[in-house]
Amino acid sequence: MRPWRNEGYRPEPPSAEYATKWLIIAMMASALAALLLENTFGLPVTDALALSASRLSRGAVWQPVTYMFLHAGLLHLIFNLLMLWWFGSLVEGSIGRRSYLELFFGAGIFGGLVQAAASVFTGQPDLITLGCSGGLLGVMVVCAMIAPSLTVFFSFVIPMKLRTMVIICIFMDLYVALSGQRSGTAVLAHLGGAAFGYGYWKLCYCRGRSLSRFWEMPLEKLRSMFQANQRVSDSELDEILLKVGREGMKSLSRRERRILIKASKQKRKN
Length: 270
Known about the structure:
With about 270 residues, the protein is mainly alpha-helical.
């Protein structure tokens, strides 16, 4: 059972929910493993894997990812997994597995870092953050962009449009954050995840871009700067010119085009 009434929207078949299923299995396994290791062997699993600004500053760089797989109790876990199954499977079936994983982990990491930064600003760097709610809010925002008129049941009772429900959730978190209430909920992780989800939809997915583009571009520039100081060999240039003669300019790769341009510049200098 899902908390919406299908009104014309058709998600992809169940096979498209592969990543969502494995995320849920991984979170359930993590919760069970943490429970056993802490209660049976006394190992500080939560201290090691939950996100804390103080530990992050001391080198615990894995925490912005691992905190998403731990939860503050059974109800927290069940609620997040249900929401992830309902909305995550719909988003994964719509934007594809790779984009979905980029969205979920990107929103979770960004939301966690926002929460950690806020804890430093408020003088509570040891405050820990648990759960995948930041990633979940990012997924829900994109879900609302995909199917804004989908009817959902807020609190499993009140029917409303998905877009309306997501806006209400964001404004509730904003109210708690601005009022300074201590709700025990990482509302800034929620808001950071929601902001990331909106940005990912607008700047990446709708433009056909991948998040990897943002670190591949600087690496590509560094590689180009390094290669610019190397002379093009005659044999390499001959191979490219032969390929142009056989298949035309359109057959050249980006690297081969760069080599031609560089050879042309070197010839003009000479």
